[in-house]
Design brief:
This protein is mostly beta strands. The protein contains 2 helices and 37 strands. The longest helix is centred in the N-terminal third of the chain and has 10 residues.
């Protein structure tokens, strides 16, 4: 994460640009007990927009206009107009075009770096803009309504993107990231804020240092990680990998494989059409509608439903250090069962299937081990079920 922007030599660079802002106007006026400045201007159309702002929020809006226009609103928290104007003058704004790139740059002059004079930058661009690249040291960033790509970076503010047809990347030191509709790949990182993605047609990569991650819809798989927050994915095609240091993971309809890991939270999966791997340090695991699964928890219970029509079936195993395991099996599913309770005093294995045979070993005074084996519908991939202390139950489902 870049915590500061490099503006060295920017003044000399922009003196050489071939096209400066057209019709830029500035007015200073009283706003409550303080002073405000409004800067308006326009630039010729360009394929790329670059914005570098040391302080302040930036909003980029795509629309039907042919060129680029901007409105910058700044405040100086002083009752003196003369002092306010000095503050405004010390934070220089340059707008210009070089080649196919439009630049808007705001930087503090000299050693004077008054942070009380931050601004709000609103920039309107043609919808067919190919790239919007926005950088700010700490303010919020918003980009909406463009056909191209968007690259956003903030030292710590929040980031919002919506109605972007190309790929997006966004990075913030700690703010939230909120994404609406995106037509390409999504690459997001925040030092600790929440990430929410409504709809992405490309692959999703989202990482938070500790906040929650929510995905409503993805079409090409997702790789999601958080240091400790919860993860929720409602619907996603392709492979989903979800990792959290301690939060819960809740996946809905996954049209592909799923890999889930949490340091201690619960895991719930609604449906998957590929192999599932789920691991938690101590929470419960619930898997509904899976073709095969490898699930392990240090201490919670496991519920797993194996369907005959969700995908290719391979060997599976379910294991918990201390908890009950309930397995739901489709009546027509060809599968071979191997189950065991290591310390079975007070616990047992129950089954709806006559072909699963239960065996009890151990004396009346010592620890007992309960095992079960059986081949359903002629047998098939092996399902191994194990708990150190808890019940194991096999239930029949009609579909």
């Amino acid at each position: 994460m870049k915590q500061s922007l490099k503006f060295a030599g920017a003044g000399m660079f922009f003196m050489a640009l071939v096209s400066l802002a057209v019709g830029q106007e500035t007015r200073v006026y009283r706003e409550g007990g303080n002073w405000a400045q409004e800067v308006t201007g326009s630039l010729d159309a360009a394929r790329i927009l670059r914005v570098k702002v040391e302080t302040g929020s930036v909003r980029v809006e795509g629309g039907s206009q042919s060129g680029i226009s901007y409105v910058i609103h700044r405040r100086a928290y002083t009752s003196s107009e003369a002092q306010a104007r000095r503050e405004f003058d010390s934070y220089k704004i340059t707008a210009s075009v070089k080649g196919d790139t439009a630049w808007i740059v705001a930087e503090w002059q000299g050693r004077r770096r008054k942070r009380e004079c931050a601004g709000d930058f609103v920039i309107k661009v043609p919808r067919n803009l190919e790239l919007a690249k926005i950088e700010t040291d700490g303010g919020n960033v918003t980009t909406t309504g463009i056909a191209g790509r968007a690259e956003m970076e903030s030292g710590g503010g929040s980031i919002h993107l919506d109605d972007v047809e190309g790929a997006i990347s966004a990075e913030t030191g700690g703010g939230t990231i909120d994404v609406g509709s995106v037509g390409g790949d999504v690459n997001l990182r925040t030092g600790g804020g929440t990430i929410k993605i409504a709809s992405a047609k490309g692959k999703i990569v989202a990482e938070s240092g500790g906040g929650s991650v929510i995905v409503i819809s993805g079409l090409q798989g997702a790789v999601i990680g958080t240091g400790g927050g919860n993860i929720q994915v409602q619907k996603c095609q392709g492979t989903v990998r979800a990792t959290t240091g301690g939060g819960s993971v809740d996946l809905g309809d996954i049209d592909g494989p799923a890999e889930i890991e949490t340091g201690g939270g619960s895991i719930r999966l609604g449906w998957a059409r590929g192999a599932v791997k789920a691991e938690t340090g101590g929470g419960a695991i619930e898997l509904n509608g899976v073709p095969s699964a490898r699930a392990q928890t240090g201490g919670g219970g496991i519920i797993a439903k194996f369907q005959s029509s969700t995908g290719a079936h391979t060997d599976s195993w379910l294991e918990t250090g201390a908890g009950d395991v309930t397995v739901y099996l489709a009546g027509d599913l060809p599968i071979s069962i191997r189950a065991a309770i290591e310390l079975a005093n007070g616990h047992t294995i129950r089954s709806d299937f006559a072909d699963i045979h239960v065996n009890v070993e151990g004396g009346s005074w010592g620890p007992k081990t309960v095992t079960a084996e059986g081949n359903l519908n002629g047998g098939g991939p092996v399902l191994k079920v194990r708990t150190s202390t808890g019940n194991i139950v096999f239930r029949r489902v009609s579909h």
